[in-house]
Backbone:
């Protein structure tokens, strides 16, 4: 496995994205870049400012990465937002903003990277979805829809680019230990965990381990797959 591949993790300054970037660095990758709207990525990474809803902003970020590290070869589309509320209270703006970031952002990032992947005849495209993409979640019609769409995206991309040494896969995390879940009342956490066969939340690093594996040579013949990291909650969708 070559550890000099250029890696890009969008939204790599916090949460799961940060854990993914940290995992690539600790695995030995020496050319890891992250995009962030604010803040910095982990030590050992190149942070470039970018907003995934803005194609010009992304193009500038890619241009900086290409000049500093080289053409991006491993793309982890992680940046995402939520605007949770029930359907009858959800505004068009709530819906459009989430879809523009979670689905549109993935489209813009992968499209900008695609020429370099095709030129290299090698690439890994890893999309970070969610268990709720296919499991569903009340109050998250916008988020669930945007995350479900990533499955069709990865499978269509596999059919377009699969013959060029490029794979495209989806990782679907379940409940993850974050600052947000830590703030939930203990009774609420216990209720959530009752529905998870594993009986616990995942660490962000457990998601990151699956992502780095998909980027490795061991996963070269896997494409168009949805890999749940949810303790059995979605039963593989």
Residues:
């Amino acid at each position: 496995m070559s550890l000099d591949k250029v890696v890009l993790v969008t939204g790599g300054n916090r949460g799961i994205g940060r854990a993914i970037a940290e995992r690539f660095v600790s695995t030995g990758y020496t050319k890891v870049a992250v995009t962030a709207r604010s803040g910095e990525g982990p030590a050992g990474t190149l942070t470039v400012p970018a907003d995934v809803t803005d194609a010009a902003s992304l193009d500038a970020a890619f241009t900086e990465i290409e000049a500093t590290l080289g053409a991006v070869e491993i793309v982890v589309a992680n940046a995402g937002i939520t605007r949770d509320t029930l359907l009858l209270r959800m505004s068009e703006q709530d819906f459009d903003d989430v879809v523009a970031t979670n689905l549109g952002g993935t489209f813009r990032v992968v499209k900008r990277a695609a020429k370099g992947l095709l030129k290299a005849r090698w690439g890994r495209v890893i999309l970070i979805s969610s268990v709720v993409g296919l499991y569903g979640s009340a109050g998250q019609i916008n988020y669930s829809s945007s995350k479900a769409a990533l499955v069709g995206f990865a499978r269509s991309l596999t059919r377009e680019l699969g013959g060029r040494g490029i794979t495209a896969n989806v990782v679907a995390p379940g409940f993850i230990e974050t600052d947000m879940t830590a703030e939930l009342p203990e009774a609420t956490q216990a209720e959530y965990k009752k529905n998870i066969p594993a009986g616990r939340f995942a660490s962000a690093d457990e998601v990151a381990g699956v992502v780095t594996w998909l980027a490795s040579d061991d996963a070269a013949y896997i494409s168009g797959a949805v890999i749940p990291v949810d303790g059995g909650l979605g039963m593989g969708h």
Remarks:
- The two ends are 30 Å apart (CA to CA).
- The chain is about 45% helix and 15% strand.
- The CA atoms of residues 98 and 204 lie 22 Å apart.
- The longest helix spans residues 141-161.
